[in-house]
Design a protein that fits this description.
The complex is a heterodimer of chains A (307) and B (293). Chain A is mainly alpha-helical. Chain A has 14 helices and no strands. The longest helix of chain A has 59 residues. Chain A is flat. Chain A starts with a helix and ends with a helix. Chain B has a single domain, classed as MetI-like fold (Orthogonal Bundle), CATH 1.10.3720.10. Chain B is built from 14 helices and two strands, in the order H-E-E-H-H-H-H-H-H-H-H-H-H-H-H-H. A two-stranded antiparallel sheet of chain B has the order 1-2. In chain B, helix 5 crosses helix 12. Chain B is globular. The relative contact order of chain B is 0.13. The chains are: A mainly alpha (307), B mainly alpha (293).
Chain lengths: 307, 293
């Protein structure tokens, strides 16, 4: 008898425990669901607040001037491309086409120079031993942290002495000499994570170090190099202070300066022209970002960055 | 590494030349210039400590600019980092559209430094702009964002905080690398979410907090585009950050010596705060696998 009652005790206890466990599981599931809903709600809310100004910007660029400060929605009541047509013409003898071309002329050599010089330097740091290596690598970190304000004035004086003012050289040359320490640092980190077996094999097969760099290392570095080029493109596109200091003739203005010029020269009420040109100037960076966002995110996670 | 020792230096040659020409020598030159009067026309004239004495005794613009800069940095950096960490924490979960959200939150960081966004800020914070229109729905009187010194600084701060994406991505990567079993163990011991966050998450990501703190601080001290375009330093110089003052002295009044002195004061402040951060980091930054005894 006692055996049976014991067994039934055990059974009911077991059933209770099972029910308890199920209830617990259900509570946990509900908690997880509430947690997920809360997270989505916060993310959507924050996302909306963050991105709405940009959405509004695009909408407002198609609005009439009267509507811009009257309608908080982003869909224009009377859509017009007047802002684009007139803004493109600018108040200067040049159109925005000229300014985009100038930006392109700044960005292309600068990006290519950055990619080549930073690859060389990173390869040197990651794969060779030489005197003062530690000190030189410390200088990379130091440049990374050094505020540019402190070197800007002598740099200006230097470029003035060289007769480089009002040309693109001050914007190209420092970057083409691996001056953007962040990229050097990022590529060194990337290279250090790659074993050098392939390079050893290439050397055994008779490649010299330049051939090894070009045919073995560069292909392996490709994803990191793409990140470098994308960041350099984006930062240069957004750069304002550099051109502001060094470029003085309007025919050499990149879009960032041209936009500032159009704020200063456009009639006070011609808002949609400025908004329309603002949309155009951010379009290249946005397009590149959306096409290649994987590289951006990897780049930041790998090196950790500004912005 | 059996190859010749000089080969590495050949690969480094562009960097070494650039380091000398564009960083090391200019760095020393600006220190020298800060003790001179130099207007680009006549050669620099040694004036000793005169620039610095003027800065700290009679230059009221400098005093204003310095206090505004410090206020801006101490407001912006903690706000931005806290926000970045908060969003990263929420994103660090098995959410369906995590990549979509991460991308969306990163967009402002792509564009944030551009002139176009500064222009946009001018429009949305205008008296009849988007922000006031939205506030009106909640029955809030229109705010004079650019006319009032405190509000003006706040709009510039918001512009920076809006670009929290890259700090967030770095936080998120750190959060994702934390071993989940730690949280499970803490939950079994009855720790609440908040306690696990404070006692597990935060200590484990201190290296990343430290990194973000330094980077954001160094950048915030150099903010230029926002105040230059949005408020032109005003009203009443309430957004006249030191980089603006340096720019005006150097490239508008061509007083290179005086501008260099301001730049050096700014540099020394950044250096001092960075050193404080590094020194204090021994007490609060925890490195996994730390071999320090």
């Amino acid at each position: 008898m006692s055996d049976i009652s014991h067994a039934s005790d055990v059974f009911t206890a077991g059933a209770d425990a099972l029910a308890e466990a199920r209830r617990h599981q259900r509570i946990q599931q509900r908690r997880a669901r509430i947690s997920a809903i809360l997270r989505y709600a916060v993310l959507l809310g924050v996302g909306l607040v963050m991105l709405y100004p940009l959405i509004w910007l695009v909408g407002a660029s198609f609005k009439t001037n009267a509507e811009i400060f009257a309608n908080p929605g982003f869909i224009p009541r009377e859509p017009t491309t007047e802002g684009y047509v007139q803004g493109w013409e600018t108040s200067t003898p040049y159109t925005f086409g000229r300014f985009f071309w100038n930006s392109f002329l700044i960005i292309l050599p600068k990006t290519i120079g950055t990619a080549i010089s930073c690859t060389m330097v990173a390869y040197g740091f990651a794969r060779f031993d030489f005197p003062l290596k530690k000190l030189l690598f410390t200088s990379v970190i130091a440049i990374l942290l050094l505020p540019n304000v402190v070197t800007r004035i002598p740099q200006y004086i230097l470029f003035r002495e060289l007769g480089w003012l009002d040309s693109f050289l001050p914007l190209w040359v420092p970057s083409a000499m691996a001056g953007d320490a962040f990229f050097v640092f990022m590529l060194v980190q990337f290279l250090r994570a790659i074993p050098d077996d392939m390079e050893q094999a290439a050397r055994v097969d008779g490649c010299n170090s330049w051939q090894t760099l070009l045919f073995v290392v560069v292909p392996m570095l490709a994803p990191a190099l793409i990140s470098v080029c994308l960041f350099q493109f984006m930062w240069t596109m957004n750069d304002f202070l550099g051109p502001l200091i060094y470029i003085s003739s309007v025919d050499k203005y990149p879009v960032s300066l041209a936009l500032k010029l159009s704020i200063d020269t456009t009639e006070a009420f011609e808002w949609n022209r400025i908004l329309a040109m603002s949309v155009l100037t951010i379009t290249p960076a946005l397009a590149v970002f959306f096409m290649a966002q994987k590289y951006f995110i990897e780049g930041i996670s790998a090196g950790g960055i500004k912005g | 590494m059996t190859r010749t020792r000089s080969l590495g230096l050949i690969y480094l040659s562009p960097y070494i030349l650039g380091l000398m020409a564009f960083t090391a020598i200019p760095f020393l030159a600006s220190f020298y210039l800060s003790f001179t009067g130099y207007n680009l026309m006549q050669p620099p004239k040694w004036t000793g400590l005169e620039n610095y004495i003027e800065l700290f005794t009679s230059d009221r613009t400098f005093r204003r600019s310095l206090s505004v800069t410090l206020l801006y940095v101490f407001l912006t950096v903690p706000l931005k980092l806290a926000f970045a960490l908060f969003i990263a924490y929420i994103l660090n979960y098995k959410l369906r559209c995590i990549n979509l959200f991460r991308t969306a939150f990163y967009v402002p960081s792509i564009l944030g430094g551009s002139i176009a966004i500064a222009v946009l800020w001018r429009y949305i914070f205008a008296t009849e702009g988007l922000v006031n229109m939205v506030l009106a729905w909640f029955g809030i009187e229109p705010v004079n964002w650019f006319g009032d010194p405190t509000n003006a600084l706040f709009t510039i701060t918001l512009l920076r905080c809006w670009q929290f994406g890259s700090a967030m991505v770095i936080f998120l990567a750190a959060l994702q690398s934390i071993d989940k079993s730690l949280y499970e163990a803490a939950a079994i011991d009855g720790a609440s979410k908040l306690r696990s966050f404070v006692f597990i998450t935060i200590p484990l990501i201190t290296p990343v907090i430290f990194f973000n703190l330094i980077m954001q601080m160094v950048q915030a001290f150099q903010e230029f585009n926002g105040p230059y375009i949005i408020t032109q330093g005003g009203p009443l110089k309430s957004t006249y950050l030191l980089p603006l003052y340096i720019y005006d002295e150097a490239f508008k009044r061509f007083d290179m010596g005086y501008a260099s002195a301001i730049a050096w004061v700014l540099f020394l402040i950044i250096m001092a705060l960075t050193l404080v951060a590094f020194w204090s980091s021994k007490k609060w930054v925890f490195y996994a696998g730390d071999k320090r005894s």
